[in-house]
């Protein structure tokens, strides 16, 4: 074999190693220019506190109950009106759009306001497993949410209880669907 062939093969195998060293070195500052997420990434992520609260339908929920599932969390400052029901409908649609990953996604609604029985029935008609924290339970959980003073906001909570992405009231929820789809595809959930 010729020396040039040996050097060419050696260079071919060493080039990726040299490039990796340069990209991770102090001499070359290489960072991606932008991210692909639609929602606002919370840095650092905000962990939900330890809690034990009862949902409007009587289920006792703790932070450990939520472990292992992604949560689509919607917050409203004052109860739930027609606009709120529409947002909850779209969150349900986002979960349905996850195809085989649907069981990995749960739905939560938090409000310090009161919800009447008719509205609660309408929420559970959208999805029977909506966890609704209202009144005292909503007031206890609300301070843990960033931007809880806003009229309405949505979040994606990871399986370990960290709020990682937020979406303002007027956000395009199709972007939220894409973000959740990427998270479900690119991550593996396991024990904490």
Automatic annotation (TrEMBL):
Pfam families, sorted? SCO1-SenC (PF02630)
Domain of life per record: Bacteria
Q: Which residues form a coiled coil?
A: none
Q: Which GO terms describe its molecular function?
A: metal ion binding
Task: Give all cystine bridges in this chain.
Answer: 80-84
Q: Which InterPro entries match?
A: SCO1/SenC, Thioredoxin-like_sf, Thioredoxin_domain
Key word Disulfide bond present:
yes
Please report the stretch or stretches of sequence annotated as the Thioredoxin domain.
42-185
**What keywords are assigned to this protein?**
Copper, Disulfide bond, Metal-binding
List of residues binding Cu cation: 80, 84
Concerning its family, UniProt says: Belongs to the SCO1/2 family.
Specify the protein name.
Answer: Thioredoxin domain-containing protein
Organism listed in the record: Wenzhouxiangella sediminis
